[in-house]
Amino acid sequence: MTFRKSYLVLALVGGLALSLGAARADTSQSSAPEMQPQVARQSWSFAGPFGKFDPEQLQRGFKVYHDVCSACHSLNLVSFRDLADPTGPAFSEAQVKALAATYKIEDGPNDSGQMFQRPGRPSDHFPWTFPNPEAAKAALGAVPPDMSDLAKARTYPRPFPLFIFDAFTQYQEQGPDYIVALLNGFTRPDDPHWNLYFPGHKIAMPKPLTDGQVKYTDGSPETLAQYSRDVAAFLYWAAEPKLDERKEMGLRVIAFLLVFAALLYFTKRRIWEGVRH
Ligand code: HEC
């Protein structure tokens, strides 16, 4: 073995030992009581290259948002008519119209310069219950983040070597996993602001969901476990409404590239056929 080669082997072994040490340290930390435990992975209909949203789940998730979360959280970037998206919640046009009309939207100014309230239209965006973030903070102690991209804006650390596998498996659903964990993480009945998964454990949001709180019409279980998964799926759709299209386009591009590669290969063979090499 040359000097240079043994040097390389040494470096490799050293690196491996170091990273294993780091992994060990990481797991021992996460089992300590004050650290956040690992967030459990959920199985999502929309995960993986062939994943698609389940419209029934999104409709239930919307109901949870509508009945509970919308009391505090805005959904600025989503309009009522987005809910009719056939690859999303797939509500009918009539349902969207009826829903929009239940909201009061500020419009104006009218001819005399006054702002006025009118019933919502499908093209309006979801209004926020608070007039401004300061009002929300004064009432709740912290500003509830807008939910339009919340499911993509949150994640959780994964210890070595899991984050390396994640890069290869292209797992992208950490956001909704975290939301499910957070909603199930209010584990101290005496303190509604203590959360197992929130960094630092003290969260301004009091436990928002409990069993039986939201009525479902499709016979799905009315439990916290079900609500949290449904609302997390809905929020993922809100953050990434074009997911189905994006995945379909990706598959088409891969198929095209495969055919193209085969054509190039045979063309190359044909061109060099008679040439001695
Ligand atoms: C009573 C008002 C209220 C309700 C209802 C409410 N939230 Fe919150 N939420 C808040 C506040 C305030 C914060 C900011 C917490 C902080 O920064 O300490 C927050 C933060 C969050 C966060 C971000 C946590 C983080 O890691 O930063 C998520 C996710 C969330 N809420 C989800 C939900 C969901 C889902 C619902 C409906 C089931 C809901 N919330 C209902 C007030 C509320």
Key features?
single chain, mainly alpha, two-stranded antiparallel sheet, 2 strands, 3% strand, binds heme C
Overall form: globular
Let me know the average pLDDT.
Answer: 90
Q: Residue ranges: pLDDT <50 for 5 or more in a row?
A: 20-32
How many helix segments? 9
What is the CA–CA distance across the termini? 35 Å
Q: Describe it for me?
A:
This protein is mostly helical. It has a domain at 50-78 and 125-266: Cytochrome Bc1 Complex, Chain D, domain 2 (Orthogonal Bundle). It is 45% helix and 3% strand. It contains nine helices and two strands, in the order H-H-H-E-E-H-H-H-H-H-H. It has helices at residues 3-30, 55-67, 93-101, 133-140, 150-153, 162-169, 174-183, 224-239, 243-272, and strands at 104-107, 116-119. A two-stranded antiparallel ribbon has the order 1-2. The chain is globular, with a radius of gyration of 25 Å. Bound molecules: heme C. Residues 64, 68-69, 71-73, 140, 142, 144-145, 150, 154, 179, 182-183, 198, 203-206, 208-209, 231 line the site of heme C.
